[in-house]
Specification:
Elements (H helix, E strand, L loop, with lengths): L1 H13 L2 H7 L2 H15 L6 H15 L3 H14 L5 H6 L6 H16 L6 H14 L10
Helix pairs in contact: 2-5, 3-4, 3-7, 4-7, 7-8
Length: 141
């Protein structure tokens, strides 16, 4: 059983460069998990939310669009043990600007489908409280 898990982990590291980048950076893994949880907060992953997510991955993290599906699969397989509170906790000691970027990205995803569901607002509000940032920080300057 352990050998099977090790071979799966090795395949991840030897495979897609976007997955390697995420696998080697626990903070990045946590950030992408939080962003993906925002996509799922209203129960529906829309095309517009996924497009914004892919754009954020490319522009902010250097993860090419063709790697995003593999990154999501990796996080689905190996990130399931990380809950939202644990992911947010990784950001509490990060510089303020990095925490604001996370909040902005979450807000961009929430607004992508032009509908703000109560669960999206609640997730964003709670995340910002835990990060110690004001609601205005979720708006691009």
């Amino acid at each position: 059983m352990a050998a099977g898990l090790l071979s799966r982990i090795r395949a991840v590291f030897d495979g897609d460069p976007g997955v390697r980048k995420v696998a080697e950076d626990p903070v990045l893994s946590a950030e992408i998990l939080l962003l993906f949880r925002m996509i799922l907060a209203d129960g529906v992953a829309t095309e517009s939310e996924m497009a914004v997510f892919r754009q954020i991955c490319a522009d902010s993290f250097g993860i090419e669009s063709e790697s995003v599906d593999a990154v999501i699969e990796y996080l689905n397989e190996f990130g399931y043990e990380t809950n939202g509170a644990q992911a947010v906790a990784m950001f509490q000691d990060m510089p303020l600007e990095r925490r604001k970027d996370l909040a902005r990205h979450m807000a961009e995803i929430a607004k992508a489908d032009h509908q703000l569901a109560e669960n999206e607002v609640r997730l964003l509000r709670r995340t910002m409280e835990l990060l110690g940032i004001a609601p205005a920080a979720a708006v691009k300057p």
